[in-house]
Amino acid sequence: MNEKIVYAIRARKIQGRITEMQLYEYISKNPKCSLYDMAKGLNWSVGKVQSALRRLKDDLIIETVKEGGRAKKLYSLKKVEDFLDLSKF
Predict the structure, then answer these.
(1) What is the pTM of this model?
(2) Could you tell me if 33 and 41 are in contact, meaning their C-beta atoms sit under 8 angstroms apart?
(3) Can you give the pLDDT at residue 57?
(4) Domains contained in the chain, CATH given
(5) pLDDT of residue 29
(6) Whole-angstrom distance between the N-terminal and C-terminal Cα of the chain?
(7) 10 Å Cβ neighbour count for 30?
(8) pLDDT of 81
(9) What three-state secondary structure class fits 51?
């Protein structure tokens, strides 16, 4: 594979990880925030937030609430305990 292509792919992956970390940090400081709150707070497009959320889906708690007759998804981070199965100890 062409060296420039390999470099471009690596750079894109790194940028994706940085985006995920920024979103993770935002959600940790602003639990129960909506997709639009995140996009506005980070000054990102909704599509960029959706892509990063999709990659972070295993780390998230997604709560759906009704607000003004519309369903709204709120995002929070799982706690460390949610990843551990303490029943084995």
Answers:
(1) 0.78
(2) yes
(3) 87
(4) 3-78 (1.10.10.10)
(5) 93
(6) 49
(7) 14
(8) 59
(9) helix
**Residue-level pLDDT at 74:** 92
Both tokens of 86, joined, read: 């303490």
Give 30's contacts (C-beta < 8 A, 6+ positions apart): 37, 38, 41
**pLDDT value, residue 88:** 60
Q: Give SS3 for 72.
A: strand
Instruction: State the 10-residue block means of pLDDT for the chain, 89 residues long.
Output: 86 90 93 94 95 89 86 86 59
Task: Report yes or no: 65 and 59 within 8 Å, Cβ to Cβ.
Answer: no
Residue located via tokens 């993770």: 24
Q: Which two tokens stand for residue 22?
A: 């920024």
| Distance from C-alpha of 83 to C-alpha of 40, rounded to nearest angstrom | 30
d(CA 11, CA 38): 24
The angle at the Cα of 53, spanning 27 to 37, to the nearest 5 degrees, equals 50
Residue 67 host element (H or E): strand 60-67
In the structure encoding, which two tokens stand for residue 73, read together?
A: 């998804």
